[in-house]
Design brief:
Elements: H1 22-50, H2 55-78, E1 91-93, H3 98-129, H4 140-161, H5 173-191, H6 194-197, H7 200-214, H8 221-225, H9 245-275, H10 285-305, E2 310-312, H11 315-323, H12 328-342, H13 345-352, H14 356-378, H15 385-402, H16 408-411, H17 422-439, E3 444-450, H18 456-469, H19 474-497, E4 507-514, E5 518-525, H20 532-541, H21 548-559, E6 562-567, E7 572-579
Antiparallel strand pairs: 1-2, 3-4, 4-5, 5-7, 6-7
Helix pairs in contact: 1-2, 1-3, 1-12, 2-10, 2-12, 2-13, 3-9, 3-10, 4-9, 4-14, 4-15, 4-17, 5-7, 5-14, 7-14, 9-10, 9-11, 9-17, 15-17, 18-19, 19-21, 20-21
Length: 581
């Protein structure tokens, strides 16, 4: 085996575009795939068991979930056309979908679940295509509260599994199994070395199963009966295309779960880009769109298979951030191993033998952590009074609805059942409150001009009028005008340098907001430019004094307090902040 590249300053052994040797990739891929297979199968098992589905459906759901997860992991790594992030992202059955998936299976079986998941996939494709429009909605406040609300909808199911043991079992069996599993998982997460911590799911479940065997509630007979290789029978009758009241009652909950999955996918795709490169670069949101589109493809396949939707697992981020392996080739091997393991029925039989209290204890710990992570996202920038009010109100409305503590008689009506899910009610609350904050904040002043240098005087007049409206001092007004001019020229010159099509006919929309510390300018144009953030980073190292482009970038950096350039497939958004001091 050839030696690995030395770690760079950011701790990477293999960056995204650096292929490790094939034997090395296979070994790492096998380890990661085995570790992630456990939570994927557990999520599927919880959904099927809580919804009282047959063993045939559970075997099929595990098989289909692993195959689809493997395929999507490969697509995310390879980036096929507009699909995929081009980074190591491990995909598998979503824990966020447990609550709504159980409701759909109980209400209409796999056929109704499949129809709702397909509808969610169409929504997710829309999110991917118009991701730029969601940038004001997918805020830390919204995403954090939604992640916390997922825990609210799942926790009751985990608690209910604590007591699901045979009637003939000893009275202490269920409490002992639950306690040992929780203590083991928590102890490993808190005190185990990093390498051992990765095996927490297997060790925690193993400890719980050991106690279950002591009480005689563990039966591995089905493991011995299962074949080593095979394909389960398809256990879904197709899609339910009646679109009756059951579909419309459950659809809002599925759409909110899809939004949660999209939020998770966007966040993980952005983070993976940042930790998968040796040199710091601006986030390419076209690849983020590709990640969401790939997730939507997996959702569509899951709907056709009648199983819950997928989402990204933390294994990819853990592999890159923990041991410095972010190579796409490793992601391809992980996906291939997923698919291979799906054809081993003994794995599904082994998981089917895990007692319900063990699974319930594990899910309570995991979603307890997810709740804390959601709250941490909300208050990442400090417990601001406004955010605390909005987050607290939305969360407790969702919790009250979930536990039927708010107007339970009204929620029993056909219309009320559409809001009877905590994620739906709380999610709708946080979205409405976030929109209220957005549209009652500082007024947005807009103008639109042709993307052309001869329109600079028109843009300059807009900036002068904006500054005069808020009585800005002359010095700050000049900085604002200069920053706007250099932003326009930088966009135009970047296109010329990249040999992009002529900007004739393209429009530039400019939005200005007055803030306490200055102004925020947003330039939106359908351009084919390279990323200005990256150009400004290169400029700091080797500026070309003869280049007009470098001069514009240097002036822009001088006048602006910050510059962010977000590139999407259909639009570029350049955000420039100009402070008073």
């Amino acid at each position: 085996m050839t030696s690995a590249p030395a770690k760079g300053g950011n701790g990477l052994r293999f960056a995204a575009n650096e292929p490790p040797p094939h034997p090395f990739s296979l070994v790492v891929g096998l380890q990661v795939a085995i570790l992630v297979t456990v939570p994927i199968i557990i999520v599927t098992t919880i959904v099927a068991r809580v919804a009282d589905q047959s063993d045939a459906y559970l075997s099929w759901a595990i098989f289909a979930g692993m195959v689809i997860g493997g395929l999507m992991t490969i697509v995310q790594s390879k980036r096929i056309g507009p699909f995929g992030a081009g980074n190591l992202m491990v995909m598998g059955t979503s824990g966020a979908a447990i609550g709504v998936a159980v409701l759909a299976l109980v209400t209409g079986g796999p056929a109704l679940l499949g129809t709702l998941v397909v509808a969610s996939a169409l929504c997710q494709f829309g999110f991917a295509a118009r991701l730029a429009l969601l940038r004001r909605i997918i805020t830390p406040l919204v995403s954090g509260v939604l992640l916390a609300l997922v825990s609210v909808t799942v926790m009751p199911m985990g608690f209910a599994m604590f007591t699901r043991v045979p009637e003939s079992a000893h009275a202490a069996a269920a409490p002992a199994i639950t306690a040992v599993t929780i203590v083991t998982v928590v102890a490993l997460m808190l005190r185990a070395p990093q390498r051992l911590r990765a095996w927490t799911p297997i060790l925690g479940i193993g400890a719980g199963c050991t106690v279950a065997a002591f009480f005689g509630v563990l039966d591995f007979a089905r493991v011995g009966e299962a074949a080593w290789l095979g394909v389960p029978a398809i256990a879904t009758p197709g899609l339910d295309l009646d679109f009756d009241s059951r579909f419309w009652v459950l659809l809002p909950g599925f759409l909110f779960v899809t939004f949660v999955i999209t939020v998770r996918q966007v966040g993980d795709a952005v983070r993976m880009q940042r930790i998968s490169r040796r040199e710091p670069k601006a986030v390419d949101f076209r690849r983020v769109q590709g990640a969401v589109a790939a997730c939507g493809s997996g959702t569509l396949l899951s709907g056709l298979a009648g199983i819950p939707a997928p989402w990204p697992y933390a294994a990819g981020i853990g592999l890159a951030g923990g041991i410095g392996i972010a190579a796409r080739r490793v992601g391809i091997y992980i996906g291939a191993v997923f698919i291979a393991l799906a054809f081993v029925p003994k794995i599904a039989a082994l998981v089917l033998s895990i007692p319900a209290p063990v699974l319930g204890a594990y899910i309570v710990v995991i979603f307890g952590i997810a709740f804390a992570q959601g709250m941490r996202v909300v208050f990442r920038d400090g417990p601001e009074r406004r955010n605390a009010l909005v987050a607290g109100l939305a969360f407790w409305i969702g919790a009250g609805i979930q536990f039927q503590a708010i107007f339970p008689s009204h929620l029993a009506t056909p219309t009320g059942r559409m809001l009877a899910n905590g994620l739906t009610a709380g999610g709708l609350t946080i979205l409405l409150l976030n929109l209220f904050i957005q549209y009652t904040g500082p007024r947005r002043h807009r103008t639109e001009v042709r993307l052309s240098a001869d329109r600079q005087p028109e843009l300059d007049r807009f900036m002068v009028d904006f500054a005069a409206r808020y009585k800005w001092p002359a010095r700050t007004t000049e900085r604002l005008r200069a920053a706007a001019e250099e932003a326009l020229l930088s966009l135009l010159r970047q296109e010329q340098d990249e040999h992009a099509p002529a900007a004739e006919g393209r429009r530039l929309r400019v939005v200005a907001r007055n803030l306490r510390e200055g102004a925020l300018l947003e330039f939106t144009a359908a351009t084919n430019a390279g990323n200005l953030e990256n150009e400004m980073s290169v400029l700091a190292e080797s500026p070309d004094p003869a280049s007009e482009r470098d001069l514009s970038l240097a002036l822009l950096r001088h006048h602006a307090s910050s510059v962010k350039h977000h590139q999407y497939h259909n639009v570029d958004i350049l955000t420039v902040r100009v402070n008073h001091s």
